[in-house]
Design a protein that fits this description.
By secondary structure, the protein is an alpha/beta fold. It folds into two domains: 221 residues, Spore Coat Polysaccharide Biosynthesis Protein SpsA, Chain A, CATH 3.90.550; 70 residues. Helix content is 49%, strand content 15%. It has an eight-stranded mixed β-sheet, with helices on both faces. It is elongated and about 90 Å long.
Length: 322
């Protein structure tokens, strides 16, 4: 382990023209502080990843890079989603640095937690997770849905760190191994723990967004949960199988009851009960087919082997790749 590791702060950006001018100097100042304390190398950089923004985000990143060598930027050819943007930045940085810290651009994650993250790395940890110490700044609905999100993921068999999003330190050693994970359907919160290596957590308080609007409403959180479960666990399929056996058992008992009743000459017309049973079983079948279809869709996308990101521009001269 080098005495002064090179740190790259990887920051995905999507339509962040309002907040980027406010937070970019904070990230640079944090680099300079850590370098001044002798914890990291002076060659450390802030790497912005433009995720196909439709506003002036890339123009701002380009101006920052031209004005200060501590800023670097790459731009994806189109919007590919937050997880792919983080991955693009990590893969771009892994051969240039010793450690990376991924963090969102909005200023909500406490950048001072980076001090403890770097300290943990210097003490031998290869992965350091930023974990929210509380959710007092969230509304009740946001707090309830977020906590339910993590609990549901864990219940479905996805290995995740509770109250951890995508604020984490990862060493280049871990990233080199992680590069062998070729999934197209990305859920980094569940994939990183699968790599292994020594890890720890650093608590921090999350603040309000400095400017702009959140890009992670409830709809996207639900989609992320579905991606996480179906990408990391087959437990829903096993639950379907178990429920299928249960329904089959109940149906078998019902058939026996109907047969015995008919033989005893006590059969009574049961239109309402029969309709309810048919509707219930049909609904269960549709739900089960939907879950199975989600897995088949994941398999379909994986077999195509499409690139997970395509870098169209860099703030330094180098051929594009994917």
């Amino acid at each position: 382990m080098p005495d002064k590791p090179i740190l790259y702060i990887v920051i995905p950006c999507y339509n962040e023209q309002e907040v980027l001018p406010l937070t970019a100097p904070q990230f640079r100042d944090k680099l300079l502080q850590l370098a001044g304390e002798g914890k990291i190398s002076e060659d450390s950089r802030v790497l912005f990843v433009n995720d196909g923004s439709r506003d002036r985000t890339w123009a701002i990143i380009s101006d920052l890079a031209a004005s200060d060598p501590h800023y670097l930027g790459i731009s994806q050819s189109r919007n590919r989603g937050h997880q792919n943007a983080v991955l693009a930045g990590l893969m771009e940085a892994k051969d240039r640095c010793d450690i990376t810290i991924s963090i969102d651009c909005d200023g909500q994650d406490d950048i001072n937690a980076m001090d403890a993250m770097v300290d943990a790395y210097l003490e031998g940890c290869e992965v350091v997770y930023g974990v929210r110490s509380s959710r007092e700044t969230d509304t009740f609905f946001k707090r309830f849905t977020a906590q339910s999100f993590y609990k549901f993921l864990a219940a479905m068999g996805a290995e995740v760190v509770y109250n951890h999003a995508d604020y984490r330190l990862i060493s280049s050693r871990v990233l080199q191994e992680f590069a062998d994970f070729r999934e197209v359907n990305l859920f980094l919160r569940g994939l990183i723990p699968l790599v292994g290596f020594k890890s720890t957590s650093v608590p921090y308080a999350r603040a309000e967004r400095l400017a702009g609007e959140s890009h992670y409403p409830l709809k996207k959180m639900i989609a992320l949960a579905v991606d996480g479960i179906t990408s990391l666990s087959v437990k829903p399929l096993r639950l379907i199988m178990g429920f299928g056996f249960f329904v089959a058992l109940v149906s078998f008992i019902g058939c026996l009851w109907a047969l015995i009743t008919a033989l005893c000459g006590k059969a009574v017309a049961g239109w309402a009960s029969m309709t309810c049973i048919v509707c219930f079983v049909s609904g269960v079948q549709l739900i089960c087919l939907g879950i199975i279809g989600e897995y088949i869709g994941k398999i379909y996308m994986e077999t195509k082997h499409r690139p997970r990101y395509i870098i169209s521009e860099r703030t330094w001269d180098e051929p594009s790749n994917s």
